[in-house]
Write a structure and sequence with these properties.
Layout (H helix, E strand, L loop, with lengths): L1 H17 L15 H13 L26 E10 L7 E4 L2 E15 L4 E18 L2 E6 L5 E3 H14 L3 H16 L2
Parallel strand pairs: 1-6
Antiparallel strand pairs: 1-3, 2-3, 3-4, 4-5
Length: about 180
């Protein structure tokens, strides 16, 4: 008798698991806040998704552009703050808003020279988000990558591991040290 009850219970649980639910909508859905699209895009950017061509596809669903220019630099950041309260936004109309974002910048990394320039401060950027094909998409601006400090240190380390030229390897070691010390 207990086995039969257990079997029935398992079948019921299996049926419940298979029933589709309303669950949370996808990030870009118009039922979500457009600020969520900006937060998701910038979160991926902070993790370095725009540093390499193989990972860039992860951020493209959040933007109207389908490819990125070759950036000669990246902005190294501590963090960013997306204004989530609609009263802080510029509401163009029901289908378009401009959302302010504040970046806490540490400095810039120049890829060609493997150089770091310390420029601590804040950077204010206004992201224009528009409803396109029933999804929120970032339409402006197209910025150079804004990458977190830890990820940029790891990126420099990965480049060092792949580099065979000893002079370039030394520059990459210096870059890693400068990035670790930056505040």
């Amino acid at each position: 008798m207990r086995r039969r009850q257990a079997s029935i219970l398992l079948v019921l649980l299996a049926v419940l698991v298979m029933i589709p639910t309303g669950g949370p909508a996808q990030t870009g859905s118009l039922s979500n806040s457009p600020a969520e699209v900006v937060k998701r895009y910038l979160g991926l950017d902070k993790k370095g998704a725009r540093l390499e061509s193989m990972s860039i596809d992860t951020v493209l669903p959040y933007t109207i552009w389908k490819e990125e220019p070759l950036w000669g630099r990246a902005v190294v950041t501590q963090d960013f703050i997306v204004a989530e309260d609609y009263r802080e936004w510029e509401v163009v109309d029901r289908m378009e808003v401009v959302i302010p974002v504040t970046f806490h910048v540490i400095g810039l990394v120049y890829f060609e020279t493997a150089g770091f320039v310390s420029e601590p401060g804040t950077e204010e950027v206004r992201f224009r988000v528009k409803a396109i094909n029933n999804r929120w998409k970032i339409v402006d601006p197209l910025l150079p990558p804004h990458v977190g400090q830890k990820r940029m240190v790891n990126f420099a380390r990965e480049a060092w591991l792949k580099e065979t030229d000893s002079a370039k390897r030394e520059k990459l070691v210096t870059l890693q040290e400068e990035l670790r010390k930056a505040k």
